[in-house]
Amino acid sequence: MIRKHRNARGFTLVELMIVVAIVGILAALAIFGVKKYVTNAKSAEARNTVGQISKNAAGAWAKEIMPGAVLGEGAVIAGANQLCKTAEAVPTAVPKGQKYQSKTTAGDDFNKGSSDTGWVCLRFTMEGPQYYQYNYNSAMTDPKTGTFAAVAIGDLNGDGVESNFAREGEVRNGNIVLSPAIKETNPDE
To answer: The whole model's pTM is what?
Structure first.
């Protein structure tokens, strides 16, 4: 009976402290991993949107624009390509640690202007809430040269440090050339 009692001992204090320390380390790693995962999921919005804006800009360039006037007999006219004109930033200020819901009524954030201006020309809109401010800037110096940039700026945690995502493109010999990747500055901020 005494032998049975000696074999039924519990854990020592040192063993319990080791288990608690291991659980604490695993919890700290899990919190860091989850935070990184959530931040990466939020910044995926910017990557996808900047990619879509730049693709829409290239598509708008490929669309030939011709005057609507009737041509005389035997007359010919060449098509012209244009970059979409610069768009207003949406929203006007960078959201700091919060989401922004674009206006979806007439005259909304993404549907201002004429068919060759900004977001309307790009045929781009966002219906859901967004973490980032989106910009589209373009400069056309002549029919064969020009540049544009699609940019997302955000401050996911509201600490004043902004993350920046940008994809650029330029007109070379009448064709659009896009940067091969999105430039990222402070993507986890």
So the answer is: 0.77
